[in-house]
């Protein structure tokens, strides 16, 4: 992920509309070349940065922060730098840079704090307790059945099954978690008379609630006049506690479900979104990539659900795991023009530095072999994420977005399930309709 943020795509080998891509690249290349020529004419003696020509696409507007003061100062920068960086050069690869202003430092500290969440799952006692609650036999046999069906389907058309057995275990876990284990709570019912309650605002946690990991407690009052009892709703972030309470909103769902994925042996990520949503990613050994999983929605591999389904605009989606952190925004926001919102919390150089810093910390005690493996994986993912952008950009300029192109041809080569995924996504969005579960849940992570 290191350098690619703004370098956009290589001529897309993962994309079959080669002509479209080539035309677009040519267009951007000409535009940029003219700009650079103009620049070098107005600045005699400065070297024309021809090497930047290898990056044909500019960053989408919402992802181009103003360059920080240190931008051109790095001695290790791969490209020739004019003395004063110009906005037209923002397309160059960015260099990580530590936070230097209060806002950047605040954002780094926020990410550092969030990065601790998945480390809490690495507790054998906790995972054992979780395993005791999961009906493993049932999930394993469901997974076995589903995976055999997929194998048979694949064999009949001479291909590879879409998902492996391990993926099917997580899919079974997802169904059970959503349908039988965890409860979604807007206003908690009155525990006295079970009638609906009305929100009264926040109230300070009791020592007991604090001890059990609730830093925020919501207060409700029974709507039944003859009762009028108060109902407390502590927002627990402690996964032990969630095994007991088994209820909450998106935050509790994602936290507890991610831990359950870990308990059944998956590699897991807890994904934080700056627009107040959280979800899970699970690594599929079968597909060799990270797969989006949203327990609240029982959504499997539908990364465009939030933007193209719910019409949300997102700025940052950062995935945290015991192996580090990754900016996975491009997996969820395929078109920044349409679904992105400006990333103003910190310069991109600082975001990159923060991600690297969290990775460094998580990986410092690993063997060299493991470190190398993770670097390879980071690189592979970076390529995947770049591929999404290239496809979406090429499709956009050709006016084919959204329905005919998004996820259809562009994604299909990479992910055989591409078209199905989109179909499910749109179906889900339509079923949900306005004011239904999706967007309504945003308020209460
Ligand atoms: Zn009541």
TrEMBL record:
One of its GO terms (cellular component) is cytosol. Residues 11-24 have a biased composition (Polar residues). It comes from the Eukaryota. One of its GO terms (molecular function) is metal ion binding. Residues 42-55 have a biased composition (Low complexity). InterPro entries: Papain-like_cys_pep_sf, PNGase, Transglutaminase-like. SUPFAM superfamilies: Cysteine proteinases (SSF54001). GO terms for biological process: ERAD pathway; glycoprotein catabolic process. Residues 242-297 form the Transglutaminase-like domain. Coiled coil: none annotated. PANTHER family: PEPTIDE N-GLYCANASE PNGASE -RELATED (PTHR12143), PEPTIDE-N(4)-(N-ACETYL-BETA-GLUCOSAMINYL)ASPARAGINE AMIDASE (PTHR12143:SF19). Belongs to the transglutaminase-like superfamily. PNGase family. This is Protein PNG1. It comes from Penicillium alfredii.
């Amino acid at each position: 992920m290191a350098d690619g943020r703004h370098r956009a795509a290589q001529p897309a080998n993962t994309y079959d509309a080669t002509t479209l891509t080539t035309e677009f690249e040519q267009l951007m290349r000409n535009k940029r070349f003219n700009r650079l020529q103009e620049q070098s004419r107005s600045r005699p003696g400065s070297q024309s940065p021809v090497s930047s020509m290898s990056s044909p696409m500019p960053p989408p507007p919402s992802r181009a922060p103003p360059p920080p003061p240190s931008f051109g100062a790095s001695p290790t920068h791969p490209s020739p730098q004019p003395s004063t960086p110009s906005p037209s050069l923002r397309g160059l690869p960015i260099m990580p840079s530590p936070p230097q202003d209060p806002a950047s430092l605040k954002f780094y500290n926020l990410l550092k704090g969030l990065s601790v969440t998945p480390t809490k799952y690495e507790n054998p006692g906790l995972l054992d307790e979780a395993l005791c609650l999961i009906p493993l036999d049932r999930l394993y046999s469901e997974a076995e059945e589903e995976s055999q069906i997929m194998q048979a389907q694949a064999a009949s058309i001479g291909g590879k099954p879409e998902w492996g057995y391990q993926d099917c275990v997580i899919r079974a876990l997802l169904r059970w978690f959503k349908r039988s284990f965890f409860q979604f709570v807007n206003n908690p019912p009155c525990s006295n008379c079970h009638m609906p309650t009305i929100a009264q605002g926040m109230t300070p946690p009791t020592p007991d609630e604090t001890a059990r990991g609730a830093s925020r407690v919501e207060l409700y009052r029974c709507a039944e006049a003859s009762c009028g009892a108060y109902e407390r709703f502590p927002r627990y972030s402690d996964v032990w506690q969630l095994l007991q309470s088994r209820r909450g909103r998106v935050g509790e769902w994602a936290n507890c479900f991610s831990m359950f994925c870990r308990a059944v042996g998956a590699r897991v990520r807890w994904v934080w979104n700056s627009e107040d949503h959280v979800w899970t990613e699970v690594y599929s050994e079968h597909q060799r990539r990270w797969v989006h999983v949203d327990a609240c929605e029982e959504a499997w591999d539908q990364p465009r659900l939030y933007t193209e389904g719910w019409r949300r605009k997102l700025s940052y989606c950062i995935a945290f795991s015991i192996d580090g952190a990754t900016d996975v925004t491009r997996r969820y926001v395929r078109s920044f023009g349409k679904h992105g919102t400006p990333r103003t919390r910190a310069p991109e150089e600082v975001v990159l530095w923060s991600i690297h810093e969290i990775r460094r910390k998580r990986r410092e005690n690993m063997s060299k072999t493991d470190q190398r493996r993770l670097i390879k994986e980071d690189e592979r993912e970076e390529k995947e994420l770049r591929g999404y952008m290239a496809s979406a950009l090429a499709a956009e300029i050709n006016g084919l977005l959204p329905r005919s192109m998004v996820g259809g041809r562009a994604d299909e080569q990479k992910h055989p399930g591409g078209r199905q995924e989109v179909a499910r996504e749109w179906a889900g969005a339509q079923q949900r309709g306005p004011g239904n579960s999706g967007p309504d849940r945003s308020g209460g992570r």
